[in-house]
Specification:
This protein is mainly β. 4% of the residues lie in helices and 40% in strands. 35% of the residues are buried. The structure holds copper (II) ion.
């Protein structure tokens, strides 16, 4: 019961927290992005279905909801204990869009950048945690980059100025991106107190303390 009390104490600032007992070490919830994201930015992924001029094949631009640019994560003290995944996550270039618009990875992760478009791109970043310039490579081929420092890496395309995306390099393997509707699940958390941090490329960060019980699911909803 002490756990539940702590959970209820966390209710603040538009955050609804409750508890049920149907799992283990999970935090579930929903993220709603109600704030306007800055208009000057084309936004990750080169805009959300603005349907701008698009030469070449008329493949529709993939559309992502604002919630899909949110990353939720829980930091750990012993990040070196965790090894990056063997399977490389991807940032794909398709229809002049980076897919996904935001990719969280654990420090040390190698990310593949397949070109699945019908045209060339030239992916680059001047971000402090990782400067990169992939050069032009033809459709059907790929390049790989290992992200060995934590921080935000904003990706651009040298050829298409509307293309952008973010790789959020984290010192924790406990992260997730909500689905289109904003639903998220953070799994495998140890029982106890955790701070859930909520990141979006342009909106103010949020964080909230939750208490994960020995068994059960904690529900936390965020409004950005
Ligand atoms: Cu491009």
């Amino acid at each position: 019961m002490a756990g539940l009390r702590k959970i209820l104490m966390g209710v603040a600032g538009g955050v609804l927290i409750c508890s049920s007992l149907t799992g283990a070490g999970e935090v579930r919830g929903r993220v709603e992005v109600r704030s306007r994201t800055s208009a000057g930015e084309s936004g990750p992924g080169g805009g959300y279905g603005h349907g701008g001029a698009f030469e070449g094949k008329s493949e529709p631009k993939p559309e992502f909801s604002e919630a899909q640019s949110v990353v939720l994560f829980v930091e750990v003290k012993d990040s070196l204990r965790y090894s990056p995944p063997a399977a490389h996550p991807r940032v794909t270039q398709r229809a002049k869009t980076f897919i996904p618009p935001v990719l969280p990875v654990l420090v040390g992760t190698t990310v593949d950048f397949p070109n699945e478009d019908t045209i060339y791109h030239n992916v680059f970043s001047y971000a402090k945690p990782k400067r990169l310039e992939l050069g032009r490579y033809p459709p059907g081929s790929s390049r790989s980059v290992t992200f060995d420092k934590s921080g935000v890496v904003k990706l651009f395309c040298e050829i298409h100025e509307n293309m952008s995306a973010y790789i959020l390099v984290l010192g924790t393997p406990f992260f997730t991106v909500p689905d289109r509707e904003g639903e998220f699940v953070l799994r495998n958390l140890s029982p106890g107190r955790h701070r859930i941090k909520v990141w979006h490329p342009t909106l103010p960060r949020q964080e909230r303390e939750v208490f994960v019980p020995e068994s059960g699911v904690v529900e936390v909803n965020f409004e950005l």
